[in-house]
Design goal:
Length: 162
């Protein structure tokens, strides 16, 4: 299902797993080529050391690349299944203030993914993301592996008998 950027922004702002962790969608970029998110520090996501709990940070990393790919390829007429296959997260510094992150999907990545979907019916890519605090200090480095599959892919070669 495709929706407008502003509609999905508001739906995700109040999606309980994100809302309760104080993860806020600032905006989706036009045509879902990116997303800006903010993790507000609060008593609900603060750890023993008074920094943002790592689970909240990971929760912010989990859904967004798959959402971007799903929206992009749904708009192109595909019936995609998209999920985060893995994510390598490195906590570089304690997050003592709000964190900010931008995740981007370039036109080159979309073209590469579309070519793979047409040839193989699936596409896997690892994409980076960084989270910075309100002072611009890098606190978190991410490598997100995204899996995309087209449910309507029909491998013509698979139906041939020798």
């Amino acid at each position: 299902m495709t929706v407008r950027e502003s509609t999905l922004k508001w739906l995700m702002r109040f999606y309980p797993p994100l809302f309760l962790q104080r993860i806020w969608v600032v905006r989706f970029h036009p045509k879902f080529k990116g997303v800006d998110i903010k993790i507000n520090k609060s008593i609900f996501n603060q750890n023993y050391n008074k920094s943002i709990f790592g689970g909240s940070i990971f929760s912010a990393a989990d859904p967004f690349y798959p959402v971007l790919f799903h929206q992009i390829f749904s708009a192109k007429g595909y019936d995609p299944i998209v999920w985060l296959k893995s994510c390598n997260i490195q906590y570089l510094k304690p997050a003592r203030t709000a964190l900010y992150c931008t995740m981007l999907v370039t036109d080159d990545i979309v073209a590469q993914a579309e070519q793979e979907l047409q040839l193989n019916g699936k596409f896997v890519i690892t994409l980076p993301a960084e989270m910075v605090d309100k002072n611009g200090m890098h606190c978190v480095s991410l490598m997100c592996e995204v899996y995309v599959r087209d449910k309507n892919f029909n491998d013509k070669n698979a139906n041939l008998t020798p």
